[in-house]
Design brief:
single chain, mainly alpha, DUF7260 domain-containing protein, DUF7260
C-alpha cells in the first residue's frame, strides 16, 4: 500500500532553496556591515538650512551617506534572488530590513554621524543574527522532514504485507492479527502527527517575531501548506481503509 512522498520531497527542495537564500542574505549583511565600518563618520554641525532627503534622491550633503547607500545596493540588494523575492526600492528595503526608525534617521541625515553609523551597524548586526537564527530553523526543519519521510516510508513498508494476500483468503485469527498490526501502525502515525503539531505550535510561539507561521512561509509555493501533516493524513486514510476492509471481512467470517 503506497503513499506518495512527493510533498515531502518538494518540501526538502523548498528548504534547500530557502537555506541558500538565507545564507546569501546573511553574507550580504555581513559585507554591508564591513563596508559601513570602513567609512569615516562626520560630526554633525548646527545649521538652519533645510535637510535634503537622501532616500529617493541622489543629493546628500555628505559623500559618506551616498557611499552607505551604494554599499547597501552592492550587497543586500544584489543577492541573486533579490528581484524575484523582493524587488524593493532602496527606501522600501531599508525600512523593511532595518525598521522605519532607522530608515527615517537615514533619510533626515545630512552627514554620516557617529550616532548614525552606530545605528546602521547595529541594524546590520541584527539582520545577520536573524538570518543565522533562521538558517538554524531551516536546518532543523529539514532534519524533521527528512526524518518524517523515513518514518512514513517505513510505515508503508510495514503495511505492504496487506498486499501479500487478499483478506478474503485469510482466516479469522489471521484477520485479528492483521487488524492488531495495522492498529499499531495507526498509533505510530498519530504520535508522529502530534509531534508535528507540537513543532508547528512551538514555531508559532517562539518565532513570531521573524515570521507568523514558519511552515506556511517556507512552503508557500507548494501545493500544500503543511506537507508533513498532509502526508501523514494520507497514510492515516490508507490505514483507516485497511482497517475497514479487515473488519468487514471479520464480520463476514463464521
Amino acid at each position: 500500500m503506497a503513499v506518495s512522498l512527493d510533498s515531502l520531497e518538494a518540501a526538502k527542495r523548498a528548504l534547500r532553496r530557502e537555506r541558500r537564500r538565507c545564507v546569501d542574505e546573511r553574507e550580504a549583511f555581513h559585507a554591508f556591515k564591513r563596508e559601513v565600518g570602513k567609512l569615516k563618520a562626520t560630526a554633525p554641525t548646527t545649521s538652519s538650512a533645510p535637510t535634503p532627503p537622501l532616500i529617493g534622491h541622489q543629493q546628500a550633503t555628505d559623500g559618506s551617506l551616498t557611499r552607505v547607500r551604494r554599499a547597501y545596493e552592492r550587497t543586500v540588494m544584489s543577492v541573486p534572488h533579490y528581484d524575484d523575492e523582493y524587488g524593493d526600492s532602496f527606501a522600501d528595503s531599508l525600512t523593511a530590513e532595518f525598521g522605519p526608525d532607522v530608515a527615517a534617521a537615514f533619510q533626515s541625515a545630512t552627514v554620516f554621524s557617529p550616532a548614525l553609523r552606530q545605528t546602521v551597524t547595529s541594524a546590520a548586526t541584527e539582520a545577520v543574527a536573524e538570518r543565522m537564527q533562521f538558517v538554524d530553523i531551516v536546518d532543523g526543519e529539514f532534519e524533521s522532514v527528512e526524518s518524517m519521510a523515513d518514518e512514513v516510508s517505513t510505515l508503508c513498508d510495514r503495511l505492504s504485507f496487506l498486499d501479500d494476500k487478499p483478506v478474503s483468503e485469510r482466516g479469522f485469527n489471521e484477520l485479528l492479527a492483521v487488524r492488531e498490526n495495522v492498529c499499531r501502525i495507526q498509533t505510530r502515525v498519530d504520535e508522529l502527527a502530534a509531534t508535528r503539531q507540537q513543532t508547528i505550535a512551538d514555531h508559532r510561539r517562539d518565532l513570531s517575531s521573524l515570521v507568523p507561521d514558519v511552515a506556511e512561509y517556507l512552503y508557500q509555493d507548494l501545493s500544500v501548506r503543511y506537507p508533513v501533516l498532509s502526508t501523514l493524513a494520507a497514510v492515516g486514510e490508507t490505514i483507516s481503509e485497511a482497517i475497514r476492509r479487515v473488519e468487514r471481512r471479520l464480520a463476514a467470517t463464521p
